[in-house]
Design brief:
single chain, 150 residues, mainly beta, 2 domains, five-stranded mixed β-sheet, three-stranded antiparallel β-sheet
Amino acid sequence: MGGGTFTSQSGEIYKTRDLTFDWAENKVNAVHQGPFQQGQWLETKGSLGEVTQGSFYWDAGAGTLYVWQNGGGDPTGNVRLYDARPGFEAVVFVRADGSDYRFLAHHWSSEAGGFFSLPSPQISPDGRLVMWRSNMNNSGRRDILVAEVP
């Protein structure tokens, strides 16, 4: 999920409340800077005062995200946010009645490739395997991956 539009907080720290879903019931779990395979994860900090280059702080009470990206500058369009919802950006197994939930794999797909880059997981008739496609961060090709369902 993109990070919205950032405005300057102070120095190289930028902030945003321009997030695209209800963050009051979720939290920013991770922030990634740059293209997924070549980029880097930013370090989580416990307060705004602790934020240094290459880190972020999520103020849940104010619904505000503060980011100081590596190399400085406005992070708008250069960072990707991840939240704490189970299964976000992942291939998961969930029984129809909700009684079983299993994380199987991260799909590593980039939506930049459009519909055909979505993972579209399919389970085998016996329920023992799942397969999905991935463009591995818009690599230019689409691979089919298979995992066993534990």
